[in-house]
Design goal:
Elements lengths: L14 E2 L10 E2 L1 H6 L6 E14 L2 E14 L2 E13 L1 H10 L1 H9 L2 E6 L1 E6 L4 H7 L3 E7 L13 H9 L1 E5 L2 E6 L1 H7 L1 H7 L8 E8 L5 E12 L2 E17 L10 E3 L17
Parallel strand pairs: 8-14
Antiparallel strand pairs: 1-2, 3-4, 3-13, 4-5, 5-6, 6-7, 7-8, 9-10, 10-11, 11-12, 12-13
Helix pairs in contact: 2-3, 6-7
Length: about 280
């Protein structure tokens, strides 16, 4: 796994989700509903949890919430707070390997404003560096935009289309399905960048999408068992979306309020910690 660790076209009117006795039932097209929301100045709020279990009592859990701003192709920027927690066994291990970083993560959330390729970070993790440099944010380059869901990027039309095509049931607005990680990695750059591309036939990702009245995804829950070294790793992630269609722009920090990570390399981690980056 690279981090610290679905393909047929969806027909218009994917499923008849409601029934009316006297006239034709309305039909939904989640992909087109999503595409209608994409564009500069549009955004959605989200709140997500994720857990990665390595076995032998080792696991990491995180909570992320904030706003995702869109561009024409999907998520383009985000403003989030990220809290990371470790199991007791993992905490003991982390304290031995990276004691200062571990304690800083336990003090409070990481605040991050991100666009594609760059993240600006503040919070206890980098406070010492910010104080000494007189800046408000540490800039990390070559950092992925954190996803709304650790496993499934349903804000990406191609990924959403693939998930819908691998559905196993549709009922009362809930779309359930499963997909092989290799298939998912082929269409989702976010998944591939975090979990790799070499799966073969191994692993399974199962999911539930809950659709709103217009077809937009209001919640996505996913579980996966993925190959990891000579064993497997379990991943769970659950995300709720609210305020679809809100007008908002994620503003990046001013240049004068930023210090590059390279300038304070001795006082901050080399990479943004956590399972979302």
């Amino acid at each position: 796994m690279k981090r610290t660790i679905v393909g047929v076209a969806v027909a218009v009117g994917l499923a008849q989700l409601t029934a009316a006795p006297a006239h034709a039932a309305p039909k939904l097209d989640p992909v087109n509903a999503l595409k209608a929301e994409l564009g500069q100045g549009k955004a959605v709020n989200f709140r997500s949890t994720a857990k990665v279990t390595y076995g032998r009592g080792l696991s990491a859990t995180s909570d992320v919430e904030g706003t995702i701003g869109f561009g024409p192709r999907g998520a383009a920027a985000s403003d989030v707070a990220h809290t990371l927690r470790y199991s007791e066994d993992m905490l003991r291990q982390m304290r031995k390997q990276r004691p200062e970083e571990t304690e800083a993560l336990r003090e409070g959330p990481i605040q991050a404003i991100s666009t594609r390729g760059v993240s600006y970070v503040s919070g206890p993790l980098v406070d010492e560096a910010l104080l000494s440099s007189g800046a408000d944010w540490v800039r990390y380059r070559r950092a992925d935009l954190p996803p709304s869901n650790l496993l499934l990027d349903v804000l990406d039309p191609a990924t959403l289309k693939t998930l819908l095509s691998h559905r196993t049931s549709v009922r009362d607005g809930a779309v359930k399905g499963s997909v092989k990680p290799a298939k998912l990695a082929a269409v989702s750059s976010a998944f591939a960048s975090r979990f790799g591309t070499r799966f073969g036939r191994r692993g399974t990702v199962s999911y539930t999408l809950r659709l709103g009245p217009t077809g937009l995804v209001e919640r996505v829950s996913a579980k996966a068992v993925l190959p990891y070294a000579d064993a497997t790793v379990g991943v769970e992630s659950d995300t709720r979306f609210t305020a679809w269609g809100r007008e908002a722009t994620v503003n990046l920090p001013l240049e004068g309020d930023v210090v590059d990570r390279e300038q304070v390399a001795d006082a901050v981690p080399a990479r943004i910690p956590g399972i979302w980056y």
